[in-house]
Amino acid sequence: MSALTYAGRTFRFSVDNGVVFHNTYSADGTALHYETVAGPAEGTAEDVRLHAAEVAPGVFLVGWTEASGMTVTHAMNLNAGTVHAFWTYETPDGRVGELHTGTLEEI
Question: In angstroms, rounded to a whole number, what is the distance separating the alpha carbons of residues 93 and 91?
Fold first, then answer.
């Protein structure tokens, strides 16, 4: 695997549903600090451990589990500045999943 080129960088991730995150990746690419800067959960932040793999040059599959039990997977294309995201979470009616797209901008 080549270098995790997202490591040590911070990106603004703007999701198609209006939610915006600031995602800061650790220098070794194994951890993420995210802050929700727009949307219903604005003001929330968390540090998570990452599972990551480069699946094509500049394209990374990155996943984690949040303290709430929400699971998140990003297919991050640093060449195009895009993300395909899939997350799951519990509701009173059971676990649901959502697929979203978004853009990345280094900040």
Answer: 5
pLDDT single digits (tens) 3-41 = 789 999 999 999 999 999 999 999 999 999 999 999 999
Residues 6+ apart with CB under 8 A from 64: 32, 48, 49, 50, 51, 71, 72
Q: What is the pTM of this model?
A: 0.89
Is 86 a residue whose pLDDT tops 70? yes
The domain defined by 10-106 carries CATH number 3.20.20.150: no
Among the residues of the chain, which ranges form H helices? none
Q: Which amino acid is at 86?
A: F
